[in-house]
């Protein structure tokens, strides 16, 4: 009898454009994937330079160049992968096969990157690193991550479930980041330091990368797959770009992603702030914990808050808290206790936006499909992924440019006033400006009240020219 009632409920929800509520086990299965992904991406981002310089003997400048070149190609491959997902038609789904199939290769390549053959000459080592890093960054991580991110849209249309997926995803991601930060050097030392230490550590992390992603790719379900009006229709690259970049909500979503990652200059400046404002590099760990731990805790409550007050209102209320917290950071800029408290407040204010980012992009994908009739669930996430990577690249560059402009002197015991101001700017002032701009951007994302009617229209096949054009005018 219960199964019959559930079937009836599912049919009623489908007719109104809704998908069945997700069970917690499936949400956790989804979140597990981002835990795995970080054992490739965060591990590499955090330790590739020190491994290559101190163990392999390749200069930091060459490693930086390799990363920069691959990032340029990376942006193009993100966009291409979104189109591939939108054109994938398999009995397993659109995104799921890519998550599952690329996971073991990504784990293996991560292991190979931290096992540069010692018998290679300098040119051979550089070539090896470039090829492996290119395969990870441009091809396999891109394919895996774009597919994984787009699952938020494919799994459900329910706003609260989408926020819940984002919350659980980032809880797992932040746990992975903290684990990698805390245990990598410990494991390398425990396994004998040098190449042997990195080999065994990379082997463990390769398994921790591949297995969780394969579990996600195998067990989650795709329930919200946009249907083409013509089954033979292909989602071509140029038309997809056109329908995306002529939609104001998509442009706002790209801007929001860019601002979110530009705000993270505070992460790049943190070690300098600890070293030259508090004269103690170990303070970085305290500031990092104050920034990450509230996010992990707060993400548990984000779906309930959004469910009670709505996505846009909740996110903007959180951003106002973050503005207050950042203002306190200015006031307590040289008082460690006060700065830690202010950092916690700032982080708590950012919880709802971090939880809601994926939900916003998934919603925008639905709006674009409804208006154009072109399925873009993969493409919309691929382009926001490109925005993320551009933002990350600019963040690193901004910190470097600010330090140079401020007259930063490497390894000096005391920095000039200009350098201290540059460090404070990247740690506090610039992120504050980005938070204010994010508040404005979220305010302009005023689609939320229309979404139930848009999804109902989609469920009836009324997309493109057949849609109810009066909905957004109400």
From TrEMBL:
This is GPH family glycoside/pentoside/hexuronide:cation symporter. The lineage of its organism: Bacteria, Bacillati, Bacillota, Bacilli, Bacillales. One of its GO terms (molecular function) is symporter activity. SUPFAM superfamilies: MFS general substrate transporter (SSF103473). It comes from the Bacteria. GO terms for biological process: carbohydrate transport; sodium ion transport. Keywords: Membrane, Transmembrane, Transmembrane helix. The chain crosses the membrane at residues 28-52, 58-77, 98-120, 126-147, 168-192, 198-220, 241-262, 282-302, 314-333, 339-362, 394-414, 426-447. InterPro entries: MFS_2 (IPR039672), MFS_trans_sf (IPR036259), Na/Gal_symport (IPR001927). Pfam families: MFS_2 (PF13347). Coiled coil: none annotated. GO terms for cellular component: plasma membrane.
């Amino acid at each position: 009898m219960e199964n019959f009632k559930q079937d009836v409920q599912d049919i009623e929800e489908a007719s109104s454009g809704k998908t069945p509520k997700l069970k917690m086990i499936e949400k956790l299965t989804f979140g597990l994937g981002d835990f795995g992904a970080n054992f490739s991406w965060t591990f590499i981002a955090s330790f590739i330079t020190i491994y290559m310089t101190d163990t392999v003997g390749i200069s930091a400048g060459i490693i930086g160049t390799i990363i920069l070149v691959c990032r340029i190609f990376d942006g193009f491959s993100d966009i291409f992968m979104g189109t591939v997902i939108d054109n994938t038609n398999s009995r397993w789904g659109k995104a799921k096969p890519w998550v599952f199939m690329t996971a073991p290769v990504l784990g293996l390549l991560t292991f190979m990157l931290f096992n540069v053959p010692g018998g290679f000459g300098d040119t051979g080592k550089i070539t090896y690193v470039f090829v492996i890093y290119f395969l990870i960054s441009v091809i396999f991580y891109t394919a895996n991550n774009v597919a994984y991110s787009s699952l938020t849209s494919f799994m459900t249309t329910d706003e609260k479930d989408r926020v819940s997926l984002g919350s659980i995803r980032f809880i797992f991601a932040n746990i992975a980041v903290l684990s990698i930060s805390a245990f990598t050097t410990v494991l390398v030392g425990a396994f004998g330091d040098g190449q042997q230490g990195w080999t065994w550590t990379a082997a463990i992390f390769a398994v921790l990368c591949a297995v969780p992603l394969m579990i996600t790719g195998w067990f989650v379900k795709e329930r919200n797959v946009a249907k083409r009006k013509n089954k033979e229709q292909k989602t071509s690259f140029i038309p997809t770009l056109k329908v995306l970049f002529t939609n104001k909500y998509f442009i706002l979503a790209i801007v929001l992603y860019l601002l979110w990652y530009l705000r993270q200059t505070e992460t790049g400046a943190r070690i300098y702030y600890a070293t030259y404002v508090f004269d103690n590099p170990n303070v970085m760990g305290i500031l990092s914990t104050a920034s990450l731990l509230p996010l992990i805790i707060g993400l548990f409550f984000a779906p309930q808050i959004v469910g009670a007050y709505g996505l846009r209102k909740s996110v903007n209320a959180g951003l106002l808290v973050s503005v207050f917290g950042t203002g306190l950071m200015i006031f307590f800029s040289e008082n460690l206790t006060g700065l830690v408290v202010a950092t916690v407040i700032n982080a708590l204010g950012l919880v709802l936006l971090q939880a809601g980012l994926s939900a916003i992009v998934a919603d925008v994908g639905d709006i674009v499909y409804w208006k154009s009739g072109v399925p873009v669930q993969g493409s919309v996430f691929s382009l926001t992924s490109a925005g993320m990577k551009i933002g990350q690249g600019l963040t690193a560059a901004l910190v470097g440019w600010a330090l140079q402009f401020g007259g930063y002197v490497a390894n000096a015991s005391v920095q000039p006033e200009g350098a201290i101001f540059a460090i404070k700017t990247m740690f506090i002032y610039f992120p504050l400006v980005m938070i204010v701009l994010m508040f404005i951007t979220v305010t302009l994302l005023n689609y939320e009240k229309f979404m139930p009617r848009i999804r109902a229209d989609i469920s009836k096949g009324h997309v493109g020219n057949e849609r109810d054009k009066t909905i957004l005018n109400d």
